Amino acid sequence: xxxxxxxxxxxxxxxxxxxxxxxxxxxxxxxxxxxxxxxxxxxxxxxxxxxxxxxxxxxxxxxxxxxxxxxxxxxxxxxxxxxxxxxxxxxxxxxxxxxxxxxxxxxxxxxxxxxxxxxxxxxxxxxxxxxxxxxxxxxxxxxxxxxxxxxxxxxxxxxxxxxxxxxxxxxxxxxxxxxxxxxxxxxxxxxxxxxxxxxxxxxxxxxxxxxxxxxxxxxxxxxxxxxxxxxxxxxxxxxxxxxxxxxxxxxxxxxxxxxxxxxxxxxxxxxxxxxxxxxxxxxxxxxxxxxxxxxxxxxxxxxxxxxxxxxxxxxxxxxxxxxxxxxxxxxxxxxxxxxxxxxxxxxxxxxxxxxxxxxxxxxxxxxxxxxxxxxxxxxxxxxxxxxxxxxxxxxxxxxxxxxxxxxxxxxxxxxxxxxxxxxxxxxxxxxxxxxxxxxxxxxxxxxxxxxxxxxxxxxxxxxxxxxxxxxxxxxxxxxxxxxxxxxxxxxxxxxxxxxxxxx
Length: 503
Known about the structure:
Strand order of the largest sheet: 3-4-7-2-8
Shape: globular
Distance between the termini: 41 Å
């Protein structure tokens, strides 16, 4: 018995199997419980009930109908059905496209009549989060297709303006020296732009020097984030941070020196996979330079699966035409330069502001979440201004503010919280696969190294193994034994259905 106890206590003894092995050898483990608690690996009474893995997945709300004009809403629902996703993603990209037009016009929002210096700009940063094949790219480019049409129209206008300039310059050059002294030299036209795919600081500065706002539409957000690690593009992050509030920003350009942008506005519409997104979230939660409020400015939308149909109906042409007509009308009509609230809208916003600031003082919340809460009433003002214009209003009405608050509180905040959780936990796929493997019951202890070297559940990397075990530990499926330097498997996981779902 002494040798058995000594061997079981030795962390180097790799044949320690717990209660099943003792029973196989004919030992009664009860006398050992007071001496060696860890032999109770198979004793389910000593283990807490494990949480079903689906409890780790955030529950996302459905899209609330009536928030957006019918032309936008019908398009979002139709595209969502075609792609088998939730309408929230196409609806929010469409709202971001509207914000891009408002930013291009230099529209400003003044939500507080008692503080005329409080200015917001109608800029949204909508980031779709999902794995490959989740529908990010078709959602982005279908919902922003009107903006790309306008960009092509602007390109034709720029080409015509350039030809007029070259003709005028040739005529001026043909004048005599005396005539040229009397006539001002023609200047090249400022290029009109709406959409950018090149997000380098120099490219953006060149466009914003001639345009009040632009939309940066990128298939992958990861590339932009990585580019900011380069010394020659590090100022890109600060430019985006400034543009979110329409604040002045200097940009150093290699050829033309420093360009000062007075009120730049950059709308960002892009997508990212959960892995790179996790880097954004962890950077914000750290004490590093990434904790600069960048995360709190993003409006993340998780790509949630919708009902799957074998032959989904195509997006009806009438719906697509109405969507493009809506944007064409918005693009061509006069927009208010300043958006201010009606008294009723202001009262709603002021109450929301008070509740947000009070919630931000909760010491139990994380610093990034407190930072978000302290600023979310500004996002509410932006959304209200964008929705007011979308519904054809020239003031932020009580109805527009109500729609904005419902959108923010009932739809977007669950997505924000879920996206931050995804960033902290990571991809749940490896955890689900490892969970199914552990439910077979033949593994009582394991190490991170054993998971990936033995390719348990198809996990072949240290990162995936750590990620899966971290998730399972959080759900109570495994417990790390610091003395033995191994994970113990909760025997009660067999009480759950295969795959970690609740009975």
